């Protein structure tokens, strides 16, 4: 019954920026940890970034090594939205990006796709050389 809808994908030149958005239905958004995954053609879906729920005193945030220093995940609980700010994009960032929601507690570290409860339909990001 929870629906995740991504937006903001598109074509961008290498070195440019994009901001992906994920709107989440329901009244329990603040209790979910949220994440972003991506899947390139012919590849497995891999972790990109995650952020803990609003129940924590602080947000726990983790990134894949491939995007550290370039991507930023954030959330707006008032609007049930999670964002992925993508800066200094590279051609290898080209993929379908999926928003994900997890109900089980998250305090940083490994954020497995196997623990995801809800997935968005994905949004295409293409980075040209």
Report the biggest beta sheet as strand number plus sense, adding barrel if it closes: 7 strands, mixed
Number of strands: 11
Round the mean pLDDT to the nearest integer and report it: 94
Order of helices and strands: EEEEEEEEEEE
C-alpha end-to-end distance: 40 Å
Radius of gyration: 14 Å
Number of helices: 0
The percentage helix is under 10%
| Low-pLDDT segments, ≥5 res | none
Care to give the gist of this entry?
By secondary structure, the chain is an all-beta fold. The protein contains no helices and eleven strands.
Task: Outline the fold blueprint.
Elements: E1 4-7, E2 10-13, E3 18-24, E4 33-39, E5 46-51, E6 61-63, E7 71-76, E8 81-86, E9 95-102, E10 118-119, E11 123-128
Parallel strand pairs: 2-11
Antiparallel strand pairs: 1-3, 3-8, 4-5, 4-9, 5-6, 7-8, 9-10, 9-11
